Amino acid sequence: MQDAPPSPSDPPQKIVLVTGPSGAGRTTAIQGLEDLGFEAIDNLPLSLVPRLLDGPPLRRPLALGLDVRTRDFSLPGLADLLSTLEADPHADAQMLYLDASASVLARRFSETRRRHPMAPAESPSEGIEREADLLAPIRARADILIDTSDMSPHDLRADMLRWFGNRDSLRLAVSVRSFSYKRGTPQSTDMVFDVRFLQNPYWQEDLRKLDGRSQAVADYVASDPRFDAFFDNVLSLTRLLLPAYRAEGKSHLAIGFGCTGGQHRSVTVTEKLAAALVEDGWQVSIRHLGLEQRHASRRH
């Protein structure tokens, strides 16, 4: 007897896709989610995930571990799966990406004497570099990014509790992101604000090489006569909407600020809004996509 298909009245199935480079802590994170009541499935072939969701929603949220060792894993396949889940009204999916610096990953492989899955006959460093290149587009689509470079397994489990524990209280995780319009609007962003109308520090020679996290750039952006009114209105709107989203059962919300290069204005506004929301007591993470992309290009 086949399971009945999902009904419009069924609550959406909560899913956390856990991925990232080998050695970054994916197994520890999945075990932490399992301790929090998730049904954990590791290395499920990508092609089987939609079939897993064909029936009625499970009683427990799902944690699905995916990495380069997963059978039929490919960048297009994972991108297609993410797009499918985003478009499915019966799925409430988010992607958790665990990362670590190349030097830390190399040290972890050295300590465990494991071979890297993408360089079984070569040094782990070569596999780490290949995997970073392969996963870069997926990393950019992550809803939650955790850098485990300075974390112990205990620290990572504590982070799982912070992000995903106490789900009955409808804790809302907020991600505030800056990005460059040159590279397009990031996917899975719920609210987007264009800050290209603000005066641009790029045209100030002493500010050009800095980014929006520096006080000098932040002061310059905030000196625009339009800045205070804009920011106050965005903050008021956000304060109005966050409790409403939480009341509706939404588990995560992504807010994006875009400027031309993703280096100055959007970064400043992202930092300022995130700080205000933390002060209000919200659980907030920050992503600077333009800065991440610039640093990644410098490594290559």
Strands across the major sheet, in which order? 2-3-1-4-5
Distance from N terminus to C terminus (CA atoms, Å) equals: 54 Å
Give the tally of structural domains: 2
**Computed Rg:** 20 Å
**Text of the CATH class of the largest domain:** Alpha Beta
The second-level CATH architecture of the largest domain is 3-Layer(aba) Sandwich
What is the quaternary state of this protein? single chain
Low-confidence stretches: none
Strand tally is 9
Major sheet attributes: 5 strands, parallel
Question: What fraction strand?
Answer: 15-25%
What's the overall average pLDDT, rounded? 86
Summarize the structure.
This protein is of the alpha/beta class.
Itemize the secondary structure elements and their pairings:
Elements: E1 13-19, H1 26-35, E2 39-42, H2 49-52, E3 62-65, H3 75-87, E4 91-99, H4 102-112, H5 124-140, E5 144-147, H6 153-164, E6 173-180, E7 191-194, H7 215-222, H8 227-247, E8 252-259, H9 265-279, E9 283-288, H10 289-299
Parallel strand pairs: 1-3, 1-4, 2-3, 4-5, 6-8, 6-9, 7-8
Helix pairs in contact: 1-6, 4-5, 8-9
Characterization of the model:
The protein has 300 residues and is of the alpha/beta class. It folds into 2 domains: 13-167, Rossmann fold, CATH 3.40.50.300; 173-299, no CATH class. It has helices at 26-35, 49-52, 75-87, 102-112, 124-140, 153-164, 215-222, 227-247, 265-279, 289-299, and strands at residues 13-19, 39-42, 62-65, 91-99, 144-147, 173-180, 191-194, 252-259, 283-288. Strands 2-3-1-4-5 form a 5-stranded parallel beta sheet, with helices on both faces. It has a 4-stranded parallel beta sheet with strand order 7-8-6-9. Helix 2 (49-52) links the parallel strand 2 (39-42) and strand 3. Helix 1 crosses helix 6 (153-164), helix 4 crosses helix 5 and helix 8 packs across helix 9. The mean pLDDT is 86.
